[in-house]
Amino acid sequence: MGKITNALKKAAEERFSRIEKISKIEDRDPFIVKKVGESKVDASIVAHFDPKALITEQYKILRTNILSMNKGKPPHVFVITSSLHSEGKTVTSLNLAISMAQAVIKPKVVLIDADLRRGRLAKYLGVSQPVGLTEVLSGKATIEDVMFNVKEYDNLAFMACGAVPDNPAELLASDAMKKFISDMKSKFEFVLIDTPPIIPVTDSGIIGAQTEGVFMVIQAGRTQRGIVKRAEELLTQSHSKILGHVLTNIEYHLPEYIYRYL
Q1: Number of domains in the chain
Q2: pLDDT exceeds 80 at position 23
Q3: What is the sign of the dihedral through the CA atoms of 201, 203, 208 and 210?
Q4: Do 114 and 172 belong to one domain?
Q5: Could you tell me how far CA 219 lies from the centroid of its own chain?
Q6: I need a labelling partner for 14 at 20 to 30 A (CA). Which of 122, 164, 236, 262 fits?
Q7: Whether residue 129 is found in the same domain as residue 23
Q8: In sequence order, what are the beta bridge partners of 82?
Q9: Are residues 20 and 106 in the same domain?
Q10: Mean pLDDT, to the nearest integer, of 82-94?
Q11: Do both 104 and 180 map to the same domain?
Q12: 89 dihedral zone (left: phi>0; alpha: psi -120 to 50; beta)
């Protein structure tokens, strides 16, 4: 018993020592993924900068959960939305798309910015892409004209939102959008569509009904239960299937008492 007690005591002392070291670090510097070199990609896209970071592992867990849905028959075309603005849906969309592209099977993945009102995908990637989905749906450009890649990923493509149209909801509900989704499904194994939040506008419900379902991003500590419930009601009313929820701004208590953020 004495040896076991001493071993436990020693292990506890080591853990407390690590906690003490962590508590002396200002601003959690080691836990924030910093930009590499001259990259213009936003530092919040952690899956791009550090595929082995514990933060990135959370997105890989999300990827695994998606790939294992329906007994290994996951959704191939789905929407990512939120209840309100600033809950982290675009950051989640980008990190998830990159994580899926990094899978061992190297599937062909595309992430489409369908937030035709205030899309930010191109901004997060640090590229200037003035044309995108709006131009494709309005017949002003082809898919090939607006699709772009980040050089690190041969199997991952992106499409920006393009110019802000006068009628975004109508454009997304058009036959052109239905054909576009069909074309994307034939070209890519996984089609991720980033959309506006559901409560302010109906866009995500319109697109969700045309896909296999919707993942809702929820910011912990900010979005109230009633808001989430209302968002779910709006998605259900639009005949969109809710596939799951992704919590952001969660403080995880991981092994070795190190706190990490998703």
Answers
A1: 2
A2: no
A3: positive
A4: yes
A5: 13
A6: 262
A7: no
A8: 217
A9: no
A10: 96
A11: yes
A12: alpha
